[in-house]
Automatic annotation (TrEMBL):
Xref: InterPro entries: Cyt_P450, Cyt_P450_B, Cyt_P450_CS, Cyt_P450_sf
Signal peptide residue numbers: none
Any one of the GO BP annotations: cholesterol catabolic process
Name of this chain's protein: Cytochrome P450
Keyword entries, A-Z: Heme, Iron, Metal-binding, Monooxygenase, Oxidoreductase
Any one GO molecular function term: heme binding
UniProt organism field: Actinocorallia herbida
Keyword Iron carried by entry: yes
Entry's family note: Belongs to the cytochrome P450 family.
């Protein structure tokens, strides 16, 4: 039975769509072709417009005065939207950089920006290289067969970002579990519970943990990102408790989960395309291009949303003030109008105008760090990799927001 455009649109509100990449991209290709600005009315969700073409997403991302993040920065069920609105009214809602608009966004973003600038990244390079070699050694110790996601990929970028924050290594397993519960709230294996209240509990655990971090860093400032956030002042005042905790949450979660998804998805792509693996091993200078191709291929952030501040049009379709649009990044990154043969995994793709990091004022703060981590791991891995194959069936996370592979069983030989 063929899929209709309405069914394709509704599939974007179904976390299980992202378990099957073939199904996902078939739906997105249909929408790009027949209804690139499509009104979605899905059960349990407030209506939204699905935006699937690269050019339309770029147009929206460029105009952050017309298209704002609040009050609906990401796709969630109507019940969750309602709960967030109640918490916002009480001053208790999550308020990360992805929830904010200028001018507040610009001021708050600047607090952490210096930690991700090129100079800071150059200083961090030796430590990242050291960690990359440590985790390739760990791969060797596992004896030739492992679940690459759970035993290697989730730990390496987690260690990097939490070290940058200055958190104790003993807390890393707790941060990993909370991240998986927060981003895996729609996945039966990872979720804490099925109700909005149960899923919000993971967020409150984050808040409680980071409130204690804030108190400690204000009492005794240290030379780490956590201290910079805790002691930042705007107009002479500390950030609110919610803003501080939210800042920590976005750094501590998105700062590693998206990177581990790309590392895992990139390895899966190389296994599935052995000609590209051979090409990369023989031409290591292609690694910077290969890194961006992995990022495009995986696109770990599936969507963000924006709300119109006035009546407007996208792609000739009228959108009223107050209506929300969903920016489908996996769709933009397979757009036939932008990418030559977009469904080909090409480690030498150049140019590569992917939107996996977003665009404009909300461009990912940690993009340079993510690229550095991916390059470092593959720089350490590829010279030692003699053979690799799947040792089971890969499994993806059920999500409509952030995710990728959650299990990648592999069999391999390393020197």
């Amino acid at each position: 039975m063929s899929t209709t455009v309405d069914q394709a649109g509704r599939s974007l509100a179904d976390p299980k769509t992202y378990l099957d990449e073939e199904r996902l991209h078939a739906a997105l290709s249909l929408l790009r072709r027949e209804s690139p600005v499509h009104l979605v009315e899905a059960p349990d969700y407030n209506p939204f417009w699905a935006i699937t073409r690269h050019a339309d997403i770029m147009e929206i991302e460029r105009d952050h005065a017309l298209w704002i993040n609040e009050p609906r920065p990401l796709l969630a069920a109507a019940e969750f939207d309602r709960l967030q609105e109640e918490q916002r009214a009480m001053g208790m809602a999550l308020s990360t950089l992805i929830h904010m608009d200028d001018p507040h966004h610009r001021v708050v973003r600047a607090i952490g920006a210096d930690w991700f600038r090129p100079k800071a990244m150059r200083a961090l390079q030796p430590r990242i290289d050291e960690l990359a070699h440590r985790y390739v050694d760990r791969l060797a110790e596992l004896g030739g067969e492992c679940d690459f996601v759970q035993q290697v990929a989730v730990h390496y970028p987690l260690y990097v970002i939490l070290s940058l924050l200055g958190l104790p290594e003993s807390d890393f397993p707790r941060m990993l579990k909370l991240t998986q519960e927060l981003f895996g709230g729609q996945d039966e294996e990872l979720q804490r519970g099925t109700t909005a209240e149960e899923q919000m509990a993971a967020l409150f655990d984050f808040f409680n943990y980071f409130n204690a971090v804030t108190a400690a860093r204000r009492a005794e400032p240290t030379d780490d990102l956590a201290s910079a956030i805790a002691n930042a002042r705007v107009d002479g005042e500390y950030l609110s408790d919610v803003d501080v905790a939210s800042y920590y949450v976005i750094i501590a979660t998105a700062g590693h989960d998206t990177t581990s998804s790309t590392i895992s998805g990139g390895l899966h792509a190389l296994i599935e395309h052995p000609d590209q693996l051979t090409r990369l091993k023989e031409n290591p200078d292609l690694l910077p291009l290969a890194t961006d191709e992995m990022i495009r291929w995986v696109t770990p952030v599936k969507e963000f949303m924006r709300t119109a501040t006035r009546d407007t049009q996208v792609g000739g379709v009228p959108i009223a003030k107050g209506e929300s649009v969903l920016l489908s990044y996996p769709s933009a990154n397979r757009d036939e109008d932008i990418f030559d043969d977009p469904f080909r995994f090409d480690i030498g793709r150049d140019p590569n105008r992917h939107l996996a990091f977003g665009f404009g004022v909300h461009y990912c703060l940690g993009a340079a760090l993510a690229r550095m981590e991916i390059r470092s791991l593959y720089t350490a891995l590829l010279p030692r990799l003699e053979s690799i194959e799947l040792a089971g069936t890969p499994e993806w996370t059920a999500t409509t927001f952030v995710g990728g592979l959650k299990h990648l069983p592999i069999r391999y030989t390393l020197t």
